[in-house]
Amino acid sequence: MTEDSNSSGSQYGSGNSGRYPYYYGQGGRLVLVDSALEAVNRGSTTIGIKTPEFALITSHIKPTLPLVDPNEKIFFIDKHIGATGAGYIADIEQLIEEIRLQAQKHRLSYESPIDIKSIAKHLSTYLHNYTIYAVRPQAASIIIAGKDVTGIQLYQIDPSGTYLKGNGFAIGHASDTAIEVLQKEYSNDITIDKALELAKQAIEKAIGEKPRVESGIVTKEGFSKLS
Questions:
Q1: Quick check: is 193 in a domain?
Q2: Is the model's pLDDT at 12 over the cut of 50?
Q3: CATH number assigned to the domain comprising residue 139
Q4: Most CB within 10 Å of its CB: which of 126, 145, 147, 182?
């Protein structure tokens, strides 16, 4: 056996020397995280839009089998926070429960609502821990919308633990196409009705047909689902 073939086979052996090829691919990419992101990219096209007055989250409801109800797409986290996600629904729901619990712990400990950056950073750390050990990363990206003393906030957190703050996000199927629509049509003074239409337009462009969606809105009064 040559030195090269022996080195290649060591990725399945014991010890630290065999772990790195398992985690890292060409160019230093995290193989398991890339696989999780691929799963996210097969999920429902999901949009987040923020202005100084509100944050809107909208997700495509995929068709289901006859007699089967669709999964919930927009989640209540706390009075001032809502969230949605793309990827494996079981992973999305686990992450939702994690941030719900964190919001409840904060209220009990400090008798005040958690700020949005803190909850985004908590989820970031939670997801990042899955990239350190030999476990499957969560195959879900989450968009969190909320309001706190700093104003209306919108964050996206990916399977790697990377979190981003911004005015517009698209995750899930054909998210690159959807974000192009948002970038062309977004304005800082867009109304809620027009933002909802823009989100539907971005999803329609991504999936190639008129979508059925579920949406939620955060205003200065708090979070609510849109009927």
A1: yes
A2: no
A3: 3.60.20.10
A4: 145
Give the structural domain span for 140: 11-226
pLDDT in tens, 66-98: 999 999 999 999 999 999 999 999 999 999 999
**C-alpha to C-alpha distance for 145 and 161, rounded to whole angstroms:** 17
Domain for residue 131, yes or no?
A: yes
Is residue 120 within a helix (H) or strand (E), and if so which, with residue range? helix 116-130
Is 4 contained in some domain?
A: no
Tokens of 207: 């999936």
To 5 degrees, how large is the angle CA 87–CA 166–CA 28?
55
| Residue (of 127, 124, 103) closest to 115 by Cα position | 103
Number of domains observed in the structure of the chain: 1
Cα separation, 163 vs 120, whole angstroms: 7
CA 35/CA 54 separation, integer angstroms: 33
Half-sphere CA count of 29, side-chain side, radius 13 A: 10
Residue 62 forms part of a structural domain:
yes
Instruction: Give residue-wise pLDDT tens across range 159-169.
Output: 999 999 999 99
Local structure of residue 210 (DSSP, 8 states) = P
The pTM of this model reads 0.88
181 vs 195: CA distance, rounded Å? 12
Question: 127, 139 in Cβ contact below 8 A?
Answer: no
**Mean pLDDT value of segment 163-188:** 98
DSSP state of 190: -
Section 179-204 average pLDDT: 98
